User: Which sequence fits this backbone?
């Protein structure tokens, strides 16, 4: 995973709450077995609407999404994160994220920055007044700034550490293999196993 | 100080704890399906890694498979490739798989319990958010993304920050004709879709204790719909007697040891929760959704709410959008809403008791003209059981379609979908925009409401139907 320290880019305001992962990418786009190319499914139902924010020319080339509360609720599909990344987003800002979405973001290298709803509202106003406003997201200092707005954001320390260093979870965990083996030796005999199959 | 159920189960699975880091948790059971696993297996191959514990892993195909012509090759080539990919991965990595046509093929959250692989005190994960279903047994069970699927395949562990604890206590007795689904929909309407965020929830109280295992699964299934990390119910005699004759239940001395351990998991009397919510079962009536998230629900007896009724500006805007998408007008009685399609099935309500409840309503009655009904058993075994009990005949006589097992119309990625503008009453778990097919409109309902709605063609409860003179089989 690529390390993430600071990102500077333009932003799109998504003035909707409860944008669930079915809205971010509908299930029909989940049939692929590859890891890339999901940008065509991003917000698929809304992309046909000429009024939709990402269809406005002034929001071309954005890399920061500022969304309403409860972004990424619902399904566990990591494809939602991949679709945002494949489209070009590096940061999503919201006042509340679905838990699994936020976890998936940290794994895949998308920064999910948690801020107060008041900060979201001020960012919306700033971006809409000038869509060319550069938004700076500093993971080192956990701050987001755009125009006159400057605010802290929250992210858990461990996800921040991993993002800053571009670390791979499986590699970290396998360095604790001895702990895993020691735990396995203590598991009770009555715990079930899938093999051999019984019917 | 005492510990809660979730704290006991969590503590028993910590492989490694270090300050400032998430706990490394051991995973007892990993359920795998075709949609969220292919990229995880690719990751293993790229890293030259193996599946650490194939004997704690099981796969089935459910999300994108058709529910008819299951003996024929899958018509959609993209879906077929994904299913074939799972079969090849299972073979390459030595994982048990239940494929189309096998009695233990079906919705992944139905087959874990029916095989007896889901047991109290376990940790269960799957690349699917409705993994919370398994919490009904007193397990910590939650959905994970594909990166985490790869992590569990490679290490049989997950890094997880310890959640807070919440108690949802439901006192009293549910009225007749009110089911677990009504209860959980009423709860979500009260607490909101984000109300459980950051918590493992324990459902407790007299009304929860009185529920069957399958009804408990319905409750825990919907935990994710109000944002909870997981939902749990303490194991008790109901749990033990459900498990006793299941294929993978412990035997002999192992059974004795297991039950003794399971009994020790209940929340201690002096344990405290970070948050508590209390509901009165007597207050709950048949409940349906009117909007596009599971928190937008009201009693069936009420009318479509006005956006102006919401104080919060975001809620008001969301309600306006939802009414527009749903094609509804504020003030319309819910009972006057015409429904094109009734879907009975899913990991929420696709088990044998759900089918029995609906069959009890449909016996001697017909699906209304202009309405279709799909009945989709949660697994091959549920289908066989229903046929042994004659439920399939009741559904077919009523004019409903009797299908094979799978996720079907719950999620709009297989052939069972709503057309744009089509309206459903669905026993599934999500009424999101487009969830059941692009432009489709979903009302979440219980199996009883689904069956009554099929008969009238408008949202209805069984009590709304004129009586029929028919001998109903004993078990429905």
Assistant:
């Amino acid at each position: 995973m690529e390390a993430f320290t600071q990102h500077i880019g333009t932003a799109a305001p998504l003035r909707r709450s409860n944008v669930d992962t079915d809205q971010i990418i509908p299930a029909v786009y989940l049939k692929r077995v590859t890891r890339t190319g999901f940008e065509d499914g991003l917000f698929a139902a809304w992309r046909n609407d000429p009024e939709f924010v990402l269809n406005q020319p002034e929001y071309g080339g954005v890399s920061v999404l500022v969304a309403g509360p409860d972004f990424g609720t619902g399904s566990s599909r990591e494809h939602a994160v991949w679709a945002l990344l494949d489209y070009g987003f590096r940061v999503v800002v919201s006042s509340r994220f679905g838990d699994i979405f936020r976890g998936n973001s940290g794994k895949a290298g998308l920064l999910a920055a948690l801020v107060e709803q008041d900060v979201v509202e001020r960012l919306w106003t700033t971006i809409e007044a000038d869509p060319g406003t550069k938004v700076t997201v500093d993971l080192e200092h956990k701050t987001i700034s755009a125009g006159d707005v400057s605010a802290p954001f929250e992210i858990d320390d461990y996800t921040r550490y991993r993002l800053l260093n571009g670390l791979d979870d499986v590699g970290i965990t396998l360095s604790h293999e001895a702990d895993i083996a020691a735990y396995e030796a203590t598991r009770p005999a009555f715990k079930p196993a899938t093999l051999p199959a019984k019917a | 100080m005492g510990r809660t159920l979730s704290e006991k189960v969590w503590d028993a699975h910590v492989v490694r704890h270090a300050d400032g880091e998430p706990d490394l948790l051991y995973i007892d059971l990993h359920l795998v399906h075709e949609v969220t696993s292919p990229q995880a297996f690719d990751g293993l191959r790229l890293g030259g890694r193996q599946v650490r514990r194939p004997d704690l892993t099981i796969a089935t195909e459910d999300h994108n498979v058709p529910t008819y012509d299951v003996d024929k090759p899958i018509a959609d080539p993209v879906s077929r490739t994904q299913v074939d990919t799972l079969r090849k991965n299972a073979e390459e990595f030595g994982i048990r798989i239940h494929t189309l046509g096998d009695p233990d093929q079906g919705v992944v959250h139905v087959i874990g319990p029916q095989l007896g692989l889901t047991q109290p005190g376990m940790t269960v994960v799957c690349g699917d958010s409705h993994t919370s279903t398994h919490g009904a047994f007193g397990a910590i069970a939650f959905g994970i993304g594909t990166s985490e699927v790869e992590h569990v395949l490679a290490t049989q562990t997950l890094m997880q920050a310890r959640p807070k604890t919440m108690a949802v206590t439901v006192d009293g007795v549910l009225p007749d004709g009110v089911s677990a689904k009504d209860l959980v929909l009423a709860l979500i309407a009260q607490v909101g879709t984000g109300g459980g965020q950051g918590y493992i929830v324990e459902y407790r109280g007299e009304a929860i204790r009185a529920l069957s295992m399958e009804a408990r699964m319905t409750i825990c299934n919907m935990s994710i719909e109000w944002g909870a990390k997981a939902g749990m119910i303490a194991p008790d005699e109901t749990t033990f007697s459900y498990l006793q004759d299941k294929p993978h239940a412990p035997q002999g001395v192992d059974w004795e040891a297991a039950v003794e351990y399971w009994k020790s998991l209940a929340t201690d009397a002096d344990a405290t929760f970070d948050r508590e919510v209390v509901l009165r079962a007597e207050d709950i009536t048949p409940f349906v959704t009117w909007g596009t998230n599971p928190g937008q629900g009201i009693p069936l007896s009420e009318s479509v709410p006005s956006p102006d009724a919401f104080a919060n500006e975001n809620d008001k805007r969301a309600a306006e959008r939802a009414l527009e998408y749903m094609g509804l007008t504020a003030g319309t009685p819910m009972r006057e809403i015409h429904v094109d399609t009734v879907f009975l099935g899913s990991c929420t309500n696709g088990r044998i008791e759900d089918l029995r409840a609906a069959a009890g309503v449909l016996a001697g009655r017909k699906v209304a003209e202009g309405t279709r009904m799909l009945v989709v058993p949660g697994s091959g075994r549920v289908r066989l059981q229903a046929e042994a009990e004659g439920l399939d005949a009741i559904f077919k006589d009523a004019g409903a379609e009797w299908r094979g097992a799978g996720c079907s119309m719950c999620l709009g990625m297989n052939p069972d979908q709503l057309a744009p503008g089509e309206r459903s009453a669905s026993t599934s778990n999500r009424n999101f925009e487009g969830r059941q097919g692009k432009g489709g409109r979903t009302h979440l309902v219980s199996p009883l409401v689904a069956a009554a709605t099929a008969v009238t063609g408008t949202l209805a409860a069984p009590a709304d139907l004129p009586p029929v003179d028919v001998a109903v089989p004993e078990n429905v």
Q: What stands out?
A: Chain A has one domain: 6-184.
